[in-house]
Amino acid sequence: MLFRRLLTLSALGVLSPTLSAASLELDSVRVAEHALDAGAQARERLRQVPGGTNLLEGGEIQSGRTATLQDVLAYQPGVQAQSAGNEGVKLSIRGSGINRGPGGHGSGVFVLLDGLALSGPGGTPYELQEPLWIERAEVWRGANGFDRGAMALGGAIDLISPTGYTAAPLTLRYEAGSHGFRKRHVSSGGHADGADYFLALTDSDYDGYQEQSAGSSKGVMFNVGYRFNPKLDTRFYFRYRETEHETPGRLTWAQIKHDPRAANPTFLARGSYRPQPGSTWVANKTTWRFDDGGMLEGGLAYHDYPMDLHETNNRVKLEYSDASASLRYSKPHQLFGRDSQSAVAWRATVFLPHSGASEYVRIAGSYPVGTKTRNYEHNGSDSLLQFSNELELAPDLWLSSGLALIYTRREVQVTYPQEGTALSLSTWDYAPRLGLRYQMTPDLQVFGNLSRSVEAPHAWSMLWGSNDTFPGGSGAATGMIRNPVELENQTATTLEAGGRGDSALGAWALAYYYSLVRHELLTVELADGPTIYNAESNASPTIHQGIEAALDSELLRAGQGRLLLRQAYTYSNFRYRDDDLFGDNRLPGLPEHFYQGELRYQHDSGWHLALNAQLASRMAVDYANSRHAGSYKVFGARAGYQAPRQDWLGWLELRNLGGERYASSVTPGYDDKGGDAARLTPGEGFGVYAGISYSWR
């Protein structure tokens, strides 16, 4: 109730007549030009990458349900995002994070907020990735995230916030639908005399598709910018958000087909849930532009993201906080008499002191509730120094080159009930990059690149992946992990080739990649008893290869209407390379074939009707490939209206029209020997959702 009152008071404050008219007036032409510039610059910037990229703009994001990043990242080739019915989306690009189940900190993709690091040595928490706080999302798939400081196999995603130059003075939005889903949002933006601001308050709640899967969220974000002159500007950012959700657990394939709304009996008996205490992100980015065309960008960020896990017999309270800093200098110049652009960049993210965890008995047994079982600390840092260059070898032929020097540090130690072995690992590594792009015609570009990626293990995974436990007689800590296990950095060498352009069929993009991965970090769930045991280890050599294709076509134009078709297809072939036990088995967790398409009739007056489809092949459930989750086909429909003045927006969405029962994600097992183990998260069943938004301009 308090948060809803804040929403109302914020809206009334924006409309208050005590505010000067000047603070509310927006020069619509200037705003439109600024938004166009930002979008056009992003498109051009991504076209200059010699590899696969994606761009999602605000109109696409806000034209339907915005429950999670799964809604945001739909219809994007190479990107697979599947929700567990809460915000803990399993996100994978080119097989990154294939080992993860939904609900935890993400790995394998470097996530940024407005060009500043959100991901850190502890992974990528999901709380601050609120879809309605995104004006634009830029995706650099795989090693193409080099210029964004991404060294992970999956690349980078940069979530760009609205500003006072692009946002309306007041926007009110409400969404509602099946399974108790409700979402409320109010925002305000404006600018005057070189200063601008954007403020948003958002909250949501839902009952969930499964039993014991209800949840809620609430948060506030704002940014304030000031342009001192055409050469110097700065912007401050703030985000705070809380989430909580019940945890239904994973199901067997038989349950998926016959009772997908059930909760896992073990999780149900425990009353598993996750009341997150709230995440905070405070940052600044300042840009200096010089007369010679050079540009210096500096950034600082503080990120506090505690967790409170009530999902097993023990309660785990984790403290995570880190600080990030970045500098990047770029300048156009002549090199060997050719046009060239060079850049040098530095980025570091460091765990702050006292990051760690305390565990307590949550369900009474041999010891009463609240008995402390274990304390442990985890620390670490990621630092890199990058050099890059773009050189025009010939008209419309550009060579991209770069080298990153990488330093990673991880420290883990159990400190209670007695100090265990302290594990401290520090590693220097490198990541070179070489690429070519050729603009053959104004409508055809081809590209290729050869790159290396480096990804360090999360500090917590070095502890949770160990099997060195406290012996009998250790009190409440008996049987719990005592000493961490040493893990090596995951590395990959990737070759990519493809192209993009416009043709008679429409706007298209196509990429093929082949990655040789060493020491891949893979997690396997070995038990589902009082404490779930997830062992993370370095795998024998693996191969990741795939095809990513997109096509946006205008099939028909008649009168004031157009018939449009957008399609995205991802082929994923991830497997072992002559493993002693598993041979050339496929890695479990993702489907080999994944397709999304939407057929849409768009009328010039602003309304549209659309039919959509999502198809996926079966996927292995364990590393032995002894069992698979079945393929599925899910169909939906949507209708909407966007007023020509860009003030009113409304939509109605029908999801999973056929009520398909399917597994949306897999938490892999080791070798189930053909048994039907509980490793699957059900996809959402039939649902109806609607939303309305009004922007006062």
TrEMBL record:
Bilayer topology annotation: Multi-pass membrane protein
Record-annotated TonB-dependent receptor plug domain positions: 46-156
Keywords: Cell outer membrane, Membrane, Receptor, Signal, TonB box, Transmembrane, Transmembrane beta strand, Transport
Record domain TonB-dependent receptor-like beta-barrel: where: 208-648
GO cellular component: cell outer membrane
Keyword Signal attached: yes
Keyword Translocase belongs to the record: no
Cellular localization per UniProt: Cell outer membrane
MF-aspect GO terms: siderophore uptake transmembrane transporter activity
BP GO terms, sorted: siderophore transmembrane transport
Similarity field: Belongs to the TonB-dependent receptor family.
PANTHER family per record: BLL6183 PROTEIN, TONB-DEPENDENT OUTER MEMBRANE RECEPTOR
Protein name: TonB-dependent receptor
